[in-house]
Queue: 3 jobs
Job 1
Amino acid sequence: LVTNGTRLGSWALELQAAGLSSLTLSLDAASAETFLSVRGGDIDPVLRGLDAARTVGLQVRLNSVISRRNLHEVPGLIEVARHYGTTLKLLDLVNLAAPAGDPEWFADFVPFPEVRAALQALGATYEGLESTPGGVGAPLLSFRMPDGLQVVMKDSLYGLFFAPSCRACAKY
């Protein structure tokens, strides 16, 4: 299950009782101001949902799409992951207008070597590649913070491994 978390607080127990054991929660900012600017809306219900999910025992991975608008939030996102006992997955801003591009995308895109340098400045150590489910998609670069927190990065420029059925897709 992938969720924006806005209603997770009222559903976490029911989802767990129905057999859900893990989920991915999209969280692109740790501060209310940046969350409002990037996502539009209030971060509080999302954090309450995250808390409810962890309280009922669900495993959670936070997904954060990193752009120029929220790159400064990476330390805060690490703190949120640490506080709630989750892992953090940083994703690059995908260019859906490929190959022509979009001027707004080019202005907002952050090359992941820059994100990697920011992680390493915070004390992260590169561990290697984490396997992708079924071997499909971009490999995940795994980092470990000094306290053991795992942070992974999905850098689409690193390499793509799509199933043969996707070779006909125009975007790949």
Job 2
Amino acid sequence: PAMVCGSSVAIEDDAVVIGAPGATNPSTGETYAGKAELYRFLFGARAPTSLQRIATLRPIAGSNQYLGRDVAINRTAIVVGAPEATITQASQGRGYVYLRPEVSWTGNASIQADAVIGSPANGADDDFGAAISVSDRNLVVGVPKADAPSAADAGRADTYTFDRINAGGFE
């Protein structure tokens, strides 16, 4: 399968996140698991001259998640959408939150998610995580195919606040 690297990109200061939703997990062979790559700009005289790969961000186990369909970054977190992830039904979707360690993003072969957001209450094919945006303390996740009481696939946006993280995600 095609990796589709670069289908989503985000930048904050010298950190760059690049999504590759079609990537196969080389450890498990799971196709379309997806991934996101974290890079840092290396600066020459005054301009960035190249990117240095810092880490690979992968989903929890499962094929067909398409992690990296959308990515967002701020000074303290990276959020990566996996809109095709299955929780209890196909394509309910998830978001993976990776918190920056203390001072800066540092080299690590693979970073595990600090929190996973999404809900079994999402319906099949809702695609939670198809669009993501993060600011200082707020996170907005697009759910473009969520049903509304009066219309199928009307869509919605879910909001979260970074006040604290628990085992189930943000509160």
Job 3
Amino acid sequence: QGDTVRSLLERVGGVGPLADLKGSYILRSNLAVPVDLYALVMLRDLSADKAVELGDTIVIPFKRPNVLIEGAVFKPGPYPYNPNYNVEQYLALAGRPLLYHTLQRLAACAEIERVFVVLAAGDLYFAGQDWQPFTHRLEPLYCGGATRAESVFNGLLAVRDLVEEDDWMLV
């Protein structure tokens, strides 16, 4: 009787560091009553405090961790963390595959005349991407093998008539 969200939080020791302070609410008779815990806890705004009634449940969800993607991507910003994702998958979510960023760096280097990319025969993913900024230096080779070593070997065979004897190859 007479309890508020603030008094109950004080009794239980406050909120944890992963609490979603802006997504909290009181569950009252199957209705969600929003509670701005950010204003109440962080700004100490007592007008954000709410009375609780017998049978209420205070719900303080976990803040969903995000990965922040910034830079030369179409859609920079926070993306929900997924422990099964790698860097390439996050960059693809933001609009550019990891290979795009790699090719961007290579194409920006004045000392590099051409960039050969060895792909599996019939690779449709590569062809579906926008490589326009690099077309002046980019040459896809659809001769990949079953292993990385076979792909490198096949790529070197494919370019043997396109390079000079003293050219350097970065693998």
